[in-house]
């Protein structure tokens, strides 16, 4: 065990593993690489900014301190960290990779893995919360805060454990034949374990939303027409984007497990699949919050204030910055889940 951890600081181990799993090494700085780097950094900057705006909106307005919006805030936090981690991962990739020690490599990959995992687990936590609130037909009681805290803490703890397993010893240092091609210091069995976990999460989210849809559909409340269509559209967008963004990454990791070393050239392009999966963090705020007119208004309020200040130069009057707009259940998402005779959908003063 001591010899294993002593290899974590070896400057030649990463090069050894990449030489074993890769046919050619990315050791040159090309124009195409710089263009791709600029695009990825721009995307990640957008992820950080839009999720930061959502977090500020949720934290600033007490009307958004209900269970559902707090879960959305947790999702925004994990997506924000995903953008930061992926920028760091990108800047330390390519020729820089070969100069890393195993410890630095594990930190690079582990941070990205933890944050991406946290985003996925946050989606699962939201689905669980919606299922408890709607399918179980259960009013929020005194245990609401405890349940929210448990779900949020559990999502981050599981993500930390999942992303930290390789640095704790589940890696292929000293066992080159067990190494993954996509992630040359990770074992193929670890890769398979991760894919299995995310596949189970995907199935769980699908099952929970199908259950929610069935409960709404079979209820005795009149939710036909535009209301039902709004709910179906929201659920379809959520599930569709999740599947579209993550399925290619799952597929490439499954192929990595099945392929012998150097036998599947497509594995050398795996970074494109992971970059595509990161788009889920870019789209989550759009799906979960942009369909809420009230939250959208609160998110855009700082921009409107700046525009008003620029147009009124020198004038100090107008609407005070601390005055909050009244919230109304007016978005398509809220209309889609509005049941006049059921208090199950009420969280604070806002419909979700």
Automatic annotation (TrEMBL):
InterPro entries: EDG5_rcpt, GPCR_Rhodpsn, GPCR_Rhodpsn_7TM, S1P_rcpt
GO terms, biological process: actin cytoskeleton organization; excitatory postsynaptic potential; filopodium assembly; negative regulation of excitatory postsynaptic potential; positive regulation of establishment of endothelial barrier; regulation of postsynapse assembly
Species assigned in the record: Panthera pardus (Leopard)
Principal localisation: membrane
One Pfam family from the record: 7tm_1
Gene name of this polypeptide: S1PR2
Residues annotated as signal peptide: none
Keyword Transmembrane tagged: yes
PROSITE patterns: G_PROTEIN_RECEP_F1_1, G_PROTEIN_RECEP_F1_2
Domain G-protein coupled receptors family 1 profile: 50-288
Membrane topology type: Multi-pass membrane protein
Family: Belongs to the G-protein coupled receptor 1 family.
Subcellular location, record wording: Cell membrane
Protein name: Sphingosine 1-phosphate receptor 2
Disulfide bridge positions per record: 172-179, 259-264
